[in-house]
């Protein structure tokens, strides 16, 4: 989903890895990643299928 000010898209494993290592692009929002973002990124390592087009499904 894309608007004039926002782009929502699925995470990639590379992005999840960058969050866990506190590395990544300069276009991140202030305060990102927060602790909850790191928890989610770690979960993708255990459940890689959650990185699909529509996010987590259980």
Mean pLDDT: 82
Q: Roughly how many Å apart are the termini?
A: 22 Å
Share of helix among residues? Answer: 25-40%
**Which stretches are low in confidence, meaning pLDDT under 50 for 5 or more residues running?**
none
Beta-strand proportion:
under 5%
Task: Return the structural class.
Answer: mainly alpha
Could you give the count of β-strands?
Answer: 0
* Gross morphology: globular
Rg from Cα:
12 Å
Description:
The chain is mainly alpha-helical. It has helices at residues 13-20, 35-46. Helix 1 (13-20) packs across helix 2 (35-46). The model has no long low-confidence stretch (mean pLDDT 82).
Question: Topology of this structure?
Answer:
Layout: H1 13-20, H2 35-46
Helix pairs in contact: 1-2
In short:
The chain is an all-alpha fold. Helix content is 34%, strand content 0%. The two termini are 22 Å apart.
Features:
58 residues; globular
